[in-house]
Design a protein that fits this description.
Elements: H1 2-27, E1 43-44, E2 48-49, E3 51-57, E4 67-71, E5 92-95, E6 103-109, E7 112-113, E8 125-132, H2 144-154, E9 161-166, E10 170-171, E11 186-192, E12 199-202, E13 209-211, E14 222-226, E15 230-233, E16 243-245, E17 249-253, E18 258-260, E19 263-264, E20 271-273, E21 283-287, E22 291-293, E23 296-299, E24 311-313, E25 317-321, E26 325-327, E27 330-333, E28 345-347, E29 353-357, E30 361-363, E31 366-367, E32 370-371, E33 374-375, E34 387-391, E35 395-396, E36 399-400
Parallel strand pairs: 3-8, 9-11, 10-12, 11-14, 12-15, 13-16, 14-17, 15-18, 16-20, 17-21, 18-22, 19-23, 20-24, 21-25, 22-26, 23-27, 24-28, 25-29, 26-30, 27-31, 28-33, 29-34, 30-35, 33-36
Antiparallel strand pairs: 1-2, 3-4, 5-9, 6-7, 6-8, 31-32
């Protein structure tokens, strides 16, 4: 009886062991039932779908919050584009003015644009913002001549404003950077890149810039704007004006710009204005700031002719001074009377000559070692034209009319 009982006990133990092993086999299966061999959404334990995080790298722009718990295989909507303030770090030619902000282009996954309409999230990813500015990639940085060549090639299709930013000193080839009729209806601003660092454009002996439109189009005009940190520098032995402004040409100086270093032994000046007789064809120079200094002109002739060492306002021209400084320019002449010679600002004796001084300083300029800051000729040929001098503000040291008589100040 005892033996029989032991047999039954052994049998029950075997059955229990077999039952335990069977349950263990079921519980420890390979899990193939939880995935989808056809590419469906995988599940995590508990039957939930796998989720991922999509991070947005604004690449210097404003912060864009990440998308969390994005279901695998799902599409996402595009977030509101970030904004990014423009920082001028790349030299070259830009359309228009310097932008206030970069332009957002797209989000990229690596080098590939992310298509929000069709792309799906299959893992954690980072999308990076791609930006652009209005820089013209085909123009070599700091190459002023190349910038002007582009104007010639593009023709009327791209008339408008341009800005040329340079981040190093530039030496111009002879007349390679002439601003001529090819720039009809265009405005060019030259500015320097750097933390307050001066960028010098050195001229050849034949001059740096000739700013003029054509006689054939009375509606056209060309503007050259010297912006922050830009210095136009002449050399010894200049054989023409450093900057010549002609028909419907406009020269503008802003704060931080400078014209200096011009030295000649003829009637060649740092800035020379000469328009043409047709109505609307004035040459203009507006000085909002900046400095014209350190220029010398020596003219040995004893004849009584026009001349100066800074700004000469010739026929059909207007010079407007709102700010800035004209100082330490020296004119030497062999003329004994010198009635038509100045040193800082001087005019010719032709028609439609205008000088409007609203601000700024003209002081410390010498003619034959004597102060001669402004000398305007009060000629008038019996017409509405002639020489107009309007003085409403600013500081002038030595001011004379065409007969060397001191003119009263406001």
């Amino acid at each position: 009886m005892k033996n029989t009982q032991k047999v039954w006990q052994r049998s029950l133990c075997v059955i229990a062991i077999i039952t335990i092993i069977s349950f263990a086999a079921v519980s420890c299966g390979d899990g193939s039932d939880n995935g989808s061999p056809s590419g469906g959404t995988p599940e995590v334990p508990g039957g939930e779908s796998q989720t991922y995080t999509v991070t947005f790298n604004s690449n210097g722009g404003s912060t864009v919050s990440a998308y969390t718990a994005v279901t695998s295989g799902a599409k996402i909507t595009a977030p509101t584009p970030p904004t990014r303030a423009f920082t001028l770090t790349e030299p070259g030619l830009y359309f228009g003015d310097m932008p206030a902000n970069y332009t957002f282009v797209e989000w990229r996954n690596g080098a590939t644009a992310w298509d929000f309409a069709s792309s799906t999230v299959t893992g954690p990813i980072t999308l990076t913002a791609h930006w652009t500015s209005n820089r013209i990639e085909s123009v070599a940085a700091n190459d002023i001549a190349a910038a002007f060549t582009r104007f010639v090639l593009t023709g009327a299709a791209n008339d408008g404003k341009y800005t040329l930013a340079i981040n190093q000193d530039v030496t111009l080839a002879a007349r390679a950077s002439t601003v001529t009729s090819a720039l009809l209806n265009r405005e060019l601003t030259i500015i320097g890149i750097g933390q307050g660092q001066e960028r010098i454009i050195t001229a050849p002996v034949g001059g740096a810039f000739y700013v003029a439109a054509t006689y054939s189009n009375t509606n056209g005009g060309v503007s050259l704007i010297l912006g922050e940190n830009i210095t136009i520098e002449g050399v010894d032995g200049m054989t023409t004006h450093l900057i010549a402004v002609g028909t419907r040409g406009n020269l503008i100086m802003k704060a931080g710009s400078k014209i200096t270093g011009h030295s000649s032994t003829g009637q060649y000046y740092p800035v020379n204005l000469t328009g043409s007789a047709n109505e609307g064809n004035l040459a203009t120079f507006t000085m909002d700031g900046g400095e014209i200094s350190g220029n010398t002109v020596t003219y040995a002739s004893t004849s009584n002719m026009n001349g100066c060492a800074a700004v000469f306002v010739g026929a059909h021209s207007t010079f407007t001074m709102n700010g800035g400084e004209i100082t330490n320019n020296v004119f030497t002449t062999g003329s004994t009377s010198g009635s038509t010679y100045g040193a800082g600002v001087s005019s010719g004796s032709a028609q439609r000559i205008n000088f409007f001084m609203n601000g700024g300083t003209i002081i410390g300029n010498l003619r034959n070692e004597e102060p001669a800051d402004v000398r305007m000729l009060n000629y008038n040929y019996g017409q509405a034209s002639g020489v107009t001098f309007t003085y409403t503000g600013g500081t002038i040291g030595a001011l004379f009319d065409g007969n060397t008589t001191s003119v009263s100040k406001p």
